[in-house]
Design brief:
Two copies of one chain form a homodimer. With about 280 residues, chain A is an alpha/beta fold. Chain A has one domain: Aldolase class I (TIM Barrel). The first copy, chain A, is about 45% helix and about 15% strand. Chain A has 13 helices and eight strands. An eight-stranded parallel barrel of chain A has the order 1-2-3-4-5-6-7-8, surrounded by five helices. Chain A is globular and about 60 Å long. At the A-B interface, helix 3, helix 4, helix 5, helix 7 and helix 8 of A face helix 3, helix 4, helix 5, helix 7 and helix 8 of B.
Chain lengths: ~280, ~280
């Protein structure tokens, strides 16, 4: 999915919500265990119940890999369902945080972006920047696909290295500066945790036009209003992820309905933020 | 596998060779395609032909993930074969370069270390340090298991961020310093590329007792002699990986035999290095 289509989706759905499919067997409703693939059945129900409120879905690979090849089957079915049931209506993110030397990252790129090889066809993949340019560029060799580079993450350990500082910049700023040369705002986004909302104004000075994927709203304590205040652009420029708050809103028979209710709360807030920002930009 | 057992293996086999199972369908012998699982059959033949010359095997996950869940089945069969055919005789490394927020890394740890969940039971996993302590520590909650933290990698892009410098240290040094507090030489190793051999003496000043996993000898241009000169300790302290030079020595019917011949050349060099270092330490 290209940038203009993504922006169109955001403004037509009045939402910049991404739903994280961090599907954990210990948290999903008991009745789903009657199915052959409870993880996929859970995901399908969540997707069906929320697809008009969210613009993106983000399966986190760890929650599938912990079940080995069986988990990968559930993951594969999930991305295939997203693409077949709602073609062109959803942006899909492989939250895999991959990165390795060039010829190896090329194989990871096939995993995420080449359905003829892996069965999977995501729009974007999260990548770790530590190994530098050649670890990331192979993902950009697929036209229309995106990398989402870890910049400033939402966890406590973010402070261990991401704020490491030379005379001019902190490491996360160095990542933002260098990686802009690898791609463009048409194929590169950044992960910036919602728990770091006050840093977003610094980040927007470096990457004014790029989309940011913002996890950490909700369960991790980040505020949507703060994120929008510092991160929003005229194209929206934000994809805000929520996982646990939405998908585990209930673990009863009504889990999908309750997930929809939580997603709707987010979507309504986002709709307000978007319409306010549109009004404001007309006044400018 | 604990540290004393690993050291015992190294000195009894007179080898610190790790064979990288970066198994690529486009490079393996044509006759293997008669099998249902050519990747696994290739790996099994390589392992059987070289198990007495190597002390470790390191499947790189990218080469399996590019085939989706089918690739994960080949990967799972490979680690199960390593553990069942040669119990206690081989150190096994999941070269996956994972790392995410704490509750997510916990799921990755299950993937690598909990066979009751994923079917896989590696001794060690490579981890990316960018997200800091809480992204790495969940892997250390499994007794007897190891993390291998990316420090200074063998690729060109290593220079993009790993040499980023504050007043006192470069980033890879900061990673070495901080991460020593997370674990110990009993459960933590570091990745240091052979192409950075001259940096090993600086690295040994920081991590004098830790094992280093050294990729990049051979196809990537690193020298075994240089690595040993700067990196060897009284416990050996090195695991040197070779992938392409060994596993693709031939793509004919004799591929396993030729792989053995290449592994034997490495093992003989390593035997010489180890016996020289033992003689030298006796003279000290």
């Amino acid at each position: 999915m290209d940038r203009s289509k993504l922006i169109e989706l955001i403004f037509s759905k009045k939402s910049f919500l991404c739903i994280g499919l961090d599907t954990d067997l210990s948290k999903i409703p008991a009745h789903l265990f009657e199915s052959d693939d409870p993880i996929f059945e859970f995901n399908r129900a969540i997707i069906d119940a929320t697809h008009d409120l969210a613009i993106a879905y983000k399966p986190n690979f760890a929650f599938y890999e912990c079940y080995g090849s069986v988990g990968w089957q559930s993951l594969t079915k999930t991305i295939q369902y997203l693409n077949s049931a709602y073609p062109g209506q959803l942006f899909t993110i492989a939250d895999a945080k991959r990165g390795d030397i060039g010829n190896t990252s090329q194989q990871y790129a096939r995993a995420m972006f080449d359905p003829s090889s892996s069965g999977m066809d995501f729009d974007a993949v999260t990548v770790a920047p530590y190994m530098g340019e050649d670890s990331v560029k192979p993902f950009l060799s697929y036209p229309g696909k995106w990398i989402i580079v870890l910049a400033l993450t939402s966890n406590k350990g973010a402070s261990d290295f991401q704020f490491f500082k030379d005379n001019n910049h902190r490491l996360f700023e160095k990542v933002l500066i260098n990686s802009q040369k690898w791609g463009s705002p048409e194929n590169t986004m950044y992960v910036v945790g919602a728990t770091q909302a006050e840093m977003l104004s610094d980040i927007r000075k470096i990457v004014s036009g790029h989309f940011l994927l913002v996890p950490g709203v909700g369960a991790q304590g980040g505020s949507l209003q703060e994120v929008a205040k510092y991160g929003l652009t005229k194209d929206c420029g934000l994809i805000v992820n929520s996982s646990r708050n939405i998908i585990y809103a209930s673990n009863g028979l009504d889990f999908a309905e309750k997930a929809r209710a939580e997603a709707a709360i987010m979507q309504q807030k986002m709709s307000g933020i978007l319409s306010y920002s549109v009004r404001q930009s007309k006044q400018d």
